[in-house]
Amino acid sequence: MLTENQTTHLSKLLSYILRHKPGEYGIVLDENGYANVDELIQRLNEHHVNIDFATLQHIVDTNNKKRFAFNEDGTKIRASQGHSVGVELGYTEQQPPAILYHGTVEKFLASIMKDGLQKMNRHHVHLSADTTTATKVAERRGKPIILEIKAGEMFAAGYAFYLSANGVWLTEHVHVDFIL
Question: Residue 90, class by beta-carbon neighbours within 10 Å (0-12 exposed, 13-18 middle, 19+ buried)?
């Protein structure tokens, strides 16, 4: 069985491949962001990453952020969100709660309060339904600052929201007027 460090390392590698650089490993994602599981395992083993289906299943099942999902028959895998490569995740527009949260740190605050939340090199801005999750996201970069987003007002104003398979709320942009 894998150690926690090995699981974390493989999870980060899968995120890198499935979200950002599939071509580096000879992987082709379909239009919905899925990679063929057998091909992924083969390519990883060719790159001296010892992995099999059981290991991949373990990573998907134990990832506390539910970053990955298999298709219904387990033959394909994808990242749930956060892609910088062109994919269509197939999420349908949903009405968000009145307030969502975004975790950030001090060094980004001035820019956010000037330009709002930008998706940068990703497909969407990521928002959380609770402050605990937003805090965990921000803590990776330093002392967390939690912003409240008037998501209900944004939705009423015509902004589209999507809910990813792992509970992350996605939108194109958050204008500064909707940040508390």
Answer: exposed
